[in-house]
Design goal:
The structure holds 2 protein chains of 2 kinds. Chain A is mostly helical. Chain A is built from 9 helices and no strands. In chain A, α3 packs parallel to α6 and α6 crosses α8. The longest helix of chain A has about 40 residues. Chain B has a 6-stranded mixed β-sheet, sandwiched between helices. Classes of the chains: A mainly alpha, B alpha/beta. The interface between A and B is medium-sized, with 12 and 24 residues.
């Protein structure tokens, strides 16, 4: 009995590993095709503009809400902590570095993974199960060039201003709370912010934008393209897209910070 | 001309098509008949190169398409039009946009010519007044006519129909079959019709092939179906509709 159980476990594990590796290979080829079709951007400029509106302009409210809340929260909590050590004047420095390097881009990434990623997964998944993607292929149109590449290009372009907006809103809300809640002089707060922020902090912040754009767009689109099994299948593929892309955003956030901060003075 | 030569296709361990050979000549209508889930639609996807066989070859106008890459297949696919079972209309586009989509996308025709062809197709398919509607606002029969219009609009040599009358009421079915029959008379088109309704075969097709348990058990002129002595064919001739 235990031997049979171990054998079945081994078989399951082998099948799952094989499936995972095949999926990884397909994802790699899918991603390569999305990049190789970039020269067709001019042809699909309308799709690009539509996607830029969806992932850019329409995402501004959610990015602002998350940035303002985390900036305010950081200001209150870190301010309280610093007050215990009589170092409240350091509030500007600590919040700015945390918001600009980490929390601004990270929260934006997670919010866009939920918003833009779920939209991609659901829309492309529905197109897949209703054979619309097959129809594109059947009539001689490359579905990756038509559906994925404009999304990728739009995300690559729009995520950068969104990171800037997230950093800016986070810092402003932190300043507002520092001045009104902790009664800190605005001059003291801002003097601790700008002279302390080094170019590498902005490099970390803005480098995360294209990295997150690639992860979120390709993972969610790939899962949409792989949807099968009716409407429930679309749900499954959408969830998978969000979970995987959010996880990868967290991992990438750590490694981008680590690599840049270790290699830049 | 489309030819399947000794095609075998497996999904996992299950063999869907076993050494299938089939030829569809230009300017003829060939029906592929068989029970649901036997692999009829798969044959259409093989003809378009949407899937590749495990073994065997698929020729389109003399070119073996099995070793071709996706991008190399696009010009070959443009010789054929496909009407999907569920229509596969782009649900975010209006009827006019659906009809004109591939003209703008692949043929890059001047906008004036696209509009002229779309108007012609709207008229041919009897969809006047619905140009600006979304597919969701149309009946099943009308959606099917849009799907046929979309396949016809760029003037392919061959058109592939996947269950053209499935799920339609008798009046809509008759209209769709009439539309298919008129295609050859007016446009001299070849067609492949996949169906499980034997009446559709007799009313439209010159040739018929019967797919049973992954094998072609009949491939001849439609009228010769009556002379076939395979027990499955005898049973479908008496039952008319295959829901096995």
């Amino acid at each position: 009995m235990p031997l049979a159980f171990i054998r079945s476990l081994e078989r399951d594990l082998t099948l799952k590993t094989k499936d995972f590796l095949l999926n990884l290979q397909e994802f790699f080829l899918f991603s390569m095709r999305a990049f190789f079709t970039m020269p067709k951007l001019r042809r699909y400029w309308r799709d690009f503009l539509d996607q830029a509106t969806i992932c850019g302009t329409e995402s501004i409210p959610i990015v602002l809400v998350s940035a303002i809340s985390i900036g305010s929260l950081m200001s209150i909590e870190v301010g309280n902590l610093l007050e215990e050590f009589g170092a409240k004047t350091m509030l500007g420095r600590s919040t700015s570095i945390t918001v600009v390097r980490e929390l601004g881009p990270l929260l934006m990434g997670l919010m866009l993974s939920a918003r833009f990623g779920s939209r991609n997964g659901a829309e492309l998944g529905a197109m897949q199960i209703s054979e619309q993607i097959d129809a594109l292929r059947a009539f001689g149109t490359d579905p990756i060039a038509k559906l994925v590449m404009p999304r990728l290009a739009a995300a690559l372009v729009m995520f950068i201003p969104l990171v800037a907006l997230s950093d800016f809103a986070g810092l402003q809300s932190a300043a507002l709370l520092a001045i009104n809640y902790h009664k800190l002089d605005p001059g003291i707060f801002w003097n601790a912010v700008y002279p302390r922020l080094a170019p590498k902090d902005f490099v970390v912040s803005f480098l995360k934008a294209p990295v997150f754009a690639i992860i979120i767009t390709l993972v969610s689109s790939f899962n949409g393209f792989s949807a099968k099994g009716g409407t429930a299948g679309v749900g499954r593929s959408t969830i998978k897209g969000i979970v995987v892309s959010s996880g990868l955003v967290l991992v990438a956030n750590f490694y981008v910070s680590k690599v840049v901060l270790e290699n830049m003075k | 001309m489309i030819e399947l030569r000794n095609v075998t296709l497996k999904y996992g361990d299950k063999e869907i098509l076993k050494n299938v050979s089939l030829t569809v000549h230009d300017n003829t209508i060939k029906a592929i008949l068989g029970p649901s889930g036997v692999g009829k639609s798969t044959i259409l996807k093989l003809m378009l190169g949407l899937i590749k066989p495990n073994s065997g070859q698929v020729f389109v106008d003399g070119t073996d398409i099995t070793p071709l890459r996706e991008t190399e297949l696009y010009p070959i696919r443009r010789k054929m039009g496909m009407v999907f079972q569920g229509n596969a209309l782009f649900d975010s586009m209006t009827i006019s946009q659906n009809l004109g989509f591939f003209l703008r996308e692949n043929l890059k025709l001047p906008e004036k010519e696209v509009e002229e062809r779309v108007s012609e197709q709207i008229l041919f398919s009897g969809l006047e007044g619905y140009e600006d509607q979304l597919p969701e606002n149309l009946s099943g029969g009308m959606r099917k006519r849009v799907a046929i219009g979309r396949a016809l609009i760029f003037r392919p040599h061959m058109i592939l129909f996947d269950e053209p009358t499935a799920g339609l009421d008798p009046v809509s079915s008759k209209r769709i079959l009439g539309l298919i029959s008129s295609l050859r008379q007016e446009s001299n088109l070849g067609a492949v019709i996949v169906t499980h309704i034997i009446d559709d075969v007799f009313s439209t097709a010159d040739h018929a092939a019967v797919l049973y348990q992954g094998e072609i058990i009949f491939d001849d002129k439609t009228e010769n179906l009556h002379q076939a002595d395979h027990p499955f064919i005898r049973s479908i001739l008496s039952d008319k509709i295959l829901e096995l």
